[in-house]
């Protein structure tokens, strides 16, 4: 039972990692004008992922120092997700 629960949580963490990276890359593409924000599909994906991750990133941004144009909160969130995954993996074994 615990192994199945760990597998489910591991899949959720992996999916969150992938979606966060996709969100970050789309944001970079918008920032460097590679993709226009008027592209409805890219904008809809970016907006949906922003709404998903913004509640988790907001507290991280409050704690971190302001670095100007570069937002390091997604990287910190990725490290937190991976740390939780390693902790769960250690707890199951």
From TrEMBL:
Q: Which residues cross the membrane?
A: 6-32, 68-88
This one is known as YggT family protein
Q: Which UniProt keywords apply?
A: Membrane, Transmembrane, Transmembrane helix
A single GO cellular-component term from the record reads:
membrane
Identify the species of origin: Erythrobacter ramosus
Q: Which InterPro entries match?
A: CCB3/YggT (IPR003425)
